Amino acid sequence: MGDxxxxxxxxxxxGKLTPDAPLAPLVxxxxxxxxxxxxxxxxxxxxAEFLRDLDPAVPVMALGLGSNLIVRxxxxxxxxxxxxxxxAKVQAEGQTLTCGGGASGILVSSTARDAGIAGVEFxxxxxxxxxxxxxMNGGAYGRETKDVLVxxxxxxxxxxxxxxxxxxxxxxxxxxxxxEGAIVVSATFRGEPGEPAAIQAEMDRIAAAREASQPxxxxxxxxxxxxxxxxxxxxxxxxxxxxxxxxxxxxVSEKHTNFLINTGDATSADIEGLGDDVRARVKxxxxxxxxxxIQRVGLAK
Length: 301
Prior knowledge:
Elements: E1 16-22, E2 34-40, H1 44-53, E3 60-63, E4 69-71, E5 76-82, E6 90-93, E7 96-100, H2 105-114, E8 117-118, H3 130-136, E9 139-140, E10 143-144, E11 149-155, E12 161-165, E13 183-190, E14 192-193, H4 196-213, E15 219-220, H5 233-239, E16 246-247, E17 250-252, E18 260-262, H6 268-286, E19 295-297
Parallel strand pairs: 2-5, 3-5, 4-19
Antiparallel strand pairs: 1-2, 6-7, 7-13, 8-14, 9-10, 11-12, 11-13, 15-18, 16-17, 17-18
């Protein structure tokens, strides 16, 4: 794929540009093809200048921890941007947390705990980065990103840098109206004063609940389908008789039926196909059209 966007056409960068980069090791499902180009920017300016000078026709996609993602087997054309260590810092001041777009939920919540900031404990339980939480309105255990977000800084596909307040993001359940191609480089969260010991206890409670109910030791992609209004996706999947259902190397988790698992050698086509099998069975059993929560990107093989 690397010859379609030739190296000579790419802007100079201070970070790292890799052609034909395997994406399977970078995503939770451990399946899928390569990125035509993988860009790990040195800092926000490096990213902004690269996007500004890149041919507008070249597609760009941001990749976080790859927890809620199926990368199709034919790979991803254009440029995949991955925010590395330079974007993984978290600072606390008063009740406010300033977080890089590449920071994990675990780092955000533990920094908050150490600073005596309560209210962001739920981020401990969401596998992903700040950029992904902001884009998807990530949530768990009764709270979601929109409850704690003040604003975020994004770099648009044009290279323009913008700060967007939470009200500008048009948040609904697991969805934002972030501009297409915008990459979240930082976000500000606000919590409330709390005791570190009580915050840690809440984080422990959440971690234990998650461990008990979800297949965390497996190659999985988190919640597969959005919960329909007034119901739970896992219940509908179960009622449709899909617990343990397989396709190739992919399986519906026996432990939590809203999780798909790569049992070893599943292709992304197996995983996505299994998800579509489940959707068809749920539609037949209960008339509900389940919506994907997991993002599916790239080309089929």
